[in-house]
């Protein structure tokens, strides 16, 4: 072995061109980040242009003057109502959905239920069935229940479609919690509710925050169900309401872009504040 190494004394170990820490690596991720974020920059610049500026100079030019009034116009035209509808729906649905998912995941992982694997499989099947296949029976059901064109009806739809993914994520994280911790809690006199609320939930804070972010983004951006089940302008949610700036004959691109900026701003702020929990929680959920 010694002789074979000595026969190649001048062989230099080359660093791969795109190894982590090399110049090629940083140039590659910088170009990828620029390409990935370019639609956001174009959207922001369009929101700051006047209608004439956009018509004369096109999409990829910088604004000649900053038209901050586009945001106020979009807000007054109808974004305010749609924003409040989406905000109320998200603030009620997301915590409720995460709470139900955490209860189900806790029962399936820690309470040793008979048939827990079968129940979990049934929940996961909800991820496999395409949403489009359920629209006709759901529409018929909602017509009989009188829930068409109502925010409570939309709430129950979002709640049902969000359960499979939430249970899948939290079940994966709860399984990483040692059973010895649960047994120690019982020795100290805790009930099942105490174990869930005082032991499992605080330990699972990263996964809970991750699910809150994922479910919040999904609920905030949801379009298909809102388009099918919401009929009047007063009950429109934000993604559905923004479409009004584009009609059959014309599109107010500057107002459409301003409405889109208002739509995504809360999501960006939410992710920036909780990104540490989000990365940690997703890493634990896929173990």
UniProtKB/TrEMBL annotation:
Tell me where it resides. Answer: Cell membrane
Please name the GO terms of the biological process aspect recorded for this protein, alphabetically: transmembrane transport
Look up keyword Transmembrane and say if it applies. yes
| UniProt entry tagged with the keyword Membrane | yes
Record-annotated ABC transmembrane type-1 domain positions: 83-274
Alphabetically ordered keywords of this record: Cell membrane, Membrane, Sugar transport, Transmembrane, Transmembrane helix, Transport
Q: What is this protein called?
A: ABC-type sugar transport system, permease component
GO CC annotations? plasma membrane
From the record, give the transmembrane residue ranges: 23-48, 82-106, 118-142, 154-174, 255-274
What is the membrane topology here?
Multi-pass membrane protein
